[in-house]
Amino acid sequence: MGNQKKIIHIDMDCFYAAVEMRDFPEYQNIPLAVGGDGPRSVLCTSNYQARQFGVRAAMPAIKAKQLCPNLKIVHGRMDVYKETSKHIREIFSRYTDLIEPLSLDEAYLDVTDATMCQGSATLIAEKIRADIFKELNLTASAGIAPNKFLAKIASDENKPNGQCVITPDKVANFVEQLSLKKIPGIGPKTFEKLNKHGYVTCADVRQSNIRALQNIVGKFANSLYLRSHGVDNRALEVSRQRKSLAIETTLAQDISTQDECKFVIDSLYQKLLTRLAPHSNREIIKQGVKLKFTDFNQTTVETQSHECQQALFLTLLSKAYSRANKRSIRLVGLTLGFADSPDESQQLSLSL
Ligand code: DCP
Ligand code: MG
């Protein structure tokens, strides 16, 4: 039991619709869907108010209007969703390097070795959701479990704006009662087929055997059998590792002395150390200081370094500041560069 993994699955609540409700307050208390409004268009998603009428993603707009005549359908703004998604991923990266994005609004995080929040995955998930709410004014739900399969199912349990933890000792009981239709890969048709043979919950599958399952679902039998026992050994498919860590602040008021810059750097440095914690396995190779001047031109000074040193940032600051030429400063930033980490390719086997 010593090597149990801790996986968090985070999924934004009615993502595209939530962004529209945030940016256009007039949509906040009405049933809303995102999609085209042509006669043959299909919905991308809808808010929870619209869902009460049975309106769903992938539903033709016409059908949705029949179910909910007051439904407001708006066009999607992909650029905003992408930008928001980038911000969400940046929040994830404050807690771990091991992130597998599944779509714009969804990702797995492996926090098995995370040190933040005393290593509590539950608290990390809460903090991530709080960060998202504070910085983006959007809500997310989370599932916390010993593997990807269970974490994904768990994130749906207390949606919207909730989370669900399945600790290792609860897995057996959770899976026992789980309907097979909740297993990713089982669509309505497969579910119906399984029902006909008497399989409705994971408990039914557990009492059976792989050969019997093969006759019904073919190659999927192995996976189905394992999932029904709560087993999923898939590692995260981690996207490319970050090459640097940057933190910067735009000042409320421009500053015009090097001493003031030093003061800002001291406070940024403390934040940088916190952000660095989840990347403690990475080898630092560079430090840099960035200044943006009041005319919006910017300058960056970098140097080789093997650890994150406050004094070195101040040396770099002197050099960057010497380029100010009497301009005041509107932004100060610190960066760390990382060496390529050999364990990138070690993310591994897709065994069941
Ligand atoms: N999406 C889409 N077409 C679909 C399904 C989804 O364009 N058929 C887009 C719109 C969603 C986003 O992807 O907002 C995320 O998909 P989810 O399945 O996570 O759905 P939501 O986030 O909208 O709702 P939920 O609160 O159920 O997660
Ligand atoms: Mg979602």
From TrEMBL:
Keywords: Cytoplasm, DNA damage, DNA repair, DNA replication, DNA-binding, DNA-directed DNA polymerase, Magnesium, Metal-binding, Mutator protein, Nucleotidyltransferase, Transferase. It comes from the Bacteria. It is found in: Cytoplasm. Pfam families: IMS, IMS_C, IMS_HHH_1. InterPro entries: DNA/RNA_pol_sf, DNA_pol_Y-fam_lit_finger_sf, DNA_pol_Y-fam_little_finger, DNA_polymerase-Y, DNApol_IV, IMS_HHH_1, Rev_trsase/Diguanyl_cyclase, UmuC. It catalyses: DNA(n) + a 2'-deoxyribonucleoside 5'-triphosphate = DNA(n+1) + diphosphate. One of its GO terms (molecular function) is magnesium ion binding. Its EC number is 2.7.7.7. GO terms for cellular component: cytosol. Its main location: cytoplasm. One of its GO terms (biological process) is SOS response. Its cofactor is Mg(2+). Residues 7-187 form the UmuC domain. HAMAP family: DNApol_IV. Poorly processive, error-prone DNA polymerase involved in untargeted mutagenesis. Copies undamaged DNA at stalled replication forks, which arise in vivo from mismatched or misaligned primer ends. These misaligned primers can be extended by PolIV. Exhibits no 3'-5' exonuclease (proofreading) activity. May be involved in translesional synthesis, in conjunction with the beta clamp from PolIII. Monomer. Belongs to the DNA polymerase type-Y family. This is DNA polymerase IV. It comes from Colwellia psychrerythraea.
